[in-house]
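Write out the 3D structure for:
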Amino acid sequence: MNELRAKAFDLRKDIVKMVKKGNAGHIGGDLSVIDILTVLYYKHMNVSPDGMKDPERDRFILSKGHSVEALYAVLADRNFFSKEELETFSQYKSKFIGHPNNKINGIEMNSGSLGHGLSVAVGMALAGKMNSSSFRVYTVMGDGELAEGSVWEGAMAASHYKLDNLTAFVDRNRLQISGSTEEVMAQDVQEERWKSFGWNVITVNGNNIDELDKAVTAAKEYKGKPTVIIAETIKGYGVSFIENKADWHHKVPTDEQLVLALEELEQRKMVQ
C-alpha cells in the first residue's frame, strides 16, 4: 500500500508536467481522481497492454472524460503505450487528445460528453451477465455530471438487472467548471439518492488509498446489487495552491507554478 501511495504522487507529477507541456488539461479533476485509478489499475483490475481483446478482461470507462490526463498517465506507466508517445499530448495531429480516444490501446470508449459512461457500463455489465462472464466493469463519474438525466436512467437499469459485476465511482470533489456543485445543482445526500435507486452504497475518503482498496474489495464481494463508491475527494489534491479552487478546473500552471507543484508533490510523497 505504501508503494501505491507513492505511485499516486508520481503519477500526479506526470500529470502536471503533461498539462504544462500540452498547454491544456483539466488538472484539478485529474489530481482528485488519480487515487481511484491507481487502486484500480495497480491492484484490482484484470487488464493488461496485450489483453485488450481478451473477452474476460475487466472494463473501465472514464465517464468524466475531461480528466483524461490522469488516465493517460496511468496507461503510459502500465506500458499500454510509451511515455514518448504521450509527449505529443494535445499537439497537432496527436491521437492523445483532450478526451479519451479509443484508437489508443487501453481505452474502451470515447467519452467526454457527460452522462454517458454509466449507461454504457451498464450495457457491458449486462452483456457479461448474459454470457456468464467473469469480468467486472468500472466507471468513474464526476459529481457535476450527476445532473445529467441519463445517469439516473442507467442507475435504474443497473439495479433492475441486479448488476453486481458493476462498480461506479463518483469523484465527489464538489466543484465543477462553473463553481460549486451545490450552487449549480444541489445534490443533497448522495447516499440516500443512490440507495433509493437500488444500489449498494459505500462512502470513502477518495484520496485515501487504503479506504479505496477496501471499498473496491467490498464491492467485488457484494451480491445482488451494483455498487457505487462515493469518493469524497479534494479537487487538485496534492498541490496546495490548486486544491479546492474552481478556477483550476481547466488551467495550465506557469513555469514557476510547475516547479512549486513538483516540489510539493515530492515532499508529500515522502511523508505518506
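The beta strands are 59-62, 137-142, 166-172, 175-176, 179-180, 200-205, 227-232.
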